[in-house]
Design goal:
α1 runs parallel beside α7, α11 runs antiparallel to α14 and α13 runs parallel beside α16. The chain starts with a helix and ends with a helix. The protein folds into two domains: 424 residues, no CATH class; 63 residues, no CATH class. It has 19 helices and no strands.
Length: 489
């Protein structure tokens, strides 16, 4: 009975804090993505934004060197051993700065080897610094999440975007300069926002850890890196098959920057949706870690979290199929038809991406890094091979197809690994319900497209019908969620 009580409390904590973090992110990030980021691309053009987007992805893939898996290791370890916060925090800070220098040298060297020009390398330096700040913020947040301070972590998760919204709004619409908006200003705004957020996050963690003495203990650092390097390998491999598309577009095609810009238009909504899926992972990692250490039954939480992420993912993917052109026309001024077909393919990739955020997080919490790294290496090979074949033929559309293929295969592998390790059994009734739901959402799309209404209204009707259908067939059970939320023993 005691164990069931603890499980219910953890499920309740997951749902209530998930609701908070989603609420905060819904307030901030959609405006950032569609109000600011989209406006920047429309203002500077597909080629200039594609130039930035390719370089940004280049720095994002290599930013594993900033962390070497320390953040994921720290999140899991602090969740299981919160008394170690002061010791870890004191030693890891200086280590991260050393890794920052290492990251800078390696990134710029590889850019030079890959024949990036001087303008690109200068631009890259600012992006490298931004990645350092962002990585430092994520490390600081891992301490807050590890301590289960989810409310504080939720606020920090949107703070940098709030600051950037203010800065970019002034630059875009404040008429404070006669010059047209430059892509460099966008990067500088990120630098300032990340710097302020990093400082505030540092102070919050410092308060929780108590007085610290920053030092560099070679033996401790070696021990940390030895334990965390599997996380680092996993991070760079997964980043590679998730972000290499834009880099290869820019490198393989004569109009690479323009194609990367078109791809970025379609990718933007997937990136936004993935941010919310990532929130699940951020909350689930410390909870899964604690439950696994205490040998609690995780099946119910895995099922609940998968349902809560799979249902929206299916709705988003199928609605994107029916309203791809309308959505792209609403958001962008140019390359609408090209980006619409890319958008459809990418959004169907959101379903396996969401699955990965649940089962990949579960395996990470369990420490199943060997299996995950083999899976990710396989994913990189598939993605690069598919991109090399498809990009020269189909340009940005080829990159989208390669992405979908990779995401489906890697998600299925992770599900299979999780089922084997945790001895899960297939719930055929649930799979049938899921299939019925997919068919039902598709039929609702066929229905609403025939309605003589504005497409936005039809789109909303389709979403509402899909949600009602999910509850109607009891794919999502209101009573189960309500019982968890009201539970306060």
């Amino acid at each position: 009975m005691h164990r069931n009580t603890k499980i219910v409390k953890l499920k309740r904590k997951f749902i209530t804090n998930l609701a908070l973090i989603i609420f905060l992110n819904l307030l901030v990030k959609p405006f950032w993505i569609f109000g600011i980021d989209r406006t920047v691309q429309n203002t500077v053009g597909a080629e200039q934004y594609g130039f930035y987007f390719a370089l940004f992805n280049f720095t994002l893939i290599l930013n594993m060197l900033l962390d070497l898996g320390i953040t994921n290791f720290n999140n899991r370890n602090i969740a299981q051993n919160s008394h170690l916060l002061n010791k870890y925090f004191s030693n890891i800070i200086l280590l991260r700065f050393i890794l920052g220098v290492f990251y800078f040298v390696i990134t710029i060297t590889l850019a030079w080897i890959w024949d990036y020009n001087l303008v690109q390398i200068k631009f890259l330096m600012f992006l490298v610094f931004n990645q350092f700040l962002l990585s430092f913020i994520l490390y600081l947040r891992s301490n807050l999440a590890g301590l289960h301070l989810f409310k504080t972590d939720s606020i920090i998760s949107v703070l940098d975007r709030i600051i950037m919204i203010v800065i970019c709004s002034i630059l875009l619409w404040g008429n404070i300069t006669e010059e047209p908006f430059k892509i460099e200003w966008f990067v500088f705004a990120q630098t300032l926002a990340y710097s302020i957020t990093a400082l505030i996050s540092f102070i919050l963690v410092l308060i929780k850890s108590g007085k610290i003495k920053i030092k560099f203990d070679v033996k401790f650092s070696y021990a940390i890196l030895k334990k965390s390097y599997p996380y680092a390998i996993l991070t760079i491999l997964m980043a590679s098959y998730n972000r290499f598309d834009a880099i290869l577009l820019e490198r393989l095609l004569t109009d690479g920057s323009r194609q990367a810009g078109i791809y970025a238009q379609a990718f933007r909504i997937l990136d936004a949706a993935s941010m919310f899926a990532l929130l699940f992972a951020g909350l689930l990692l410390p909870i899964f870690s604690k439950m696994i250490k205490q040998k609690q039954d995780i099946k119910q939480l895995v099922h609940l979290s998968f349902v809560l992420i799979a249902v929206p993912a299916i709705i988003i993917a199928i609605t994107s199929l029916f309203f791809n052109n309308e959505i792209m026309e609403l958001l962008y001024h140019k390359h609408v038809s090209s980006s619409a077909s890319i958008f459809t393919i990418l959004m169907f990739g959101f379903i396996p991406i969401s699955t990965t955020y649940i089962f990949g997080t579960l395996l990470t919490a369990n420490g199943s890094l060997k299996q995950l790294n083999i899976m990710a290496l396989f994913g990189v090979a598939i993605n690069i091979g598919a991109n090399i074949v498809l990009i020269p033929i189909y340009s940005a559309l080829g990159a989208a197809i390669a992405s979908l293929i990779t995401q489906v295969i890697t998600a299925l592998i992770q599900v299979a690994i999780a089922f084997k390790i945790f001895k899960f059994k297939l719930n055929y009734n649930f799979l049938i319900l899921l299939l019925i739901f997919v068919v039902g959402v598709f039929i609702s799309g066929l229905f609403v497209k025939k309605l003589p209404l504005n497409w936005v209204i039809s789109y909303i009707i389709m979403i509402v019908l899909s949600i009602i259908f999910a509850f109607g067939i009891k794919l999502i059970k209101i009573k189960g969620i309500y019982d968890i939320i009201k539970y306060d023993k």
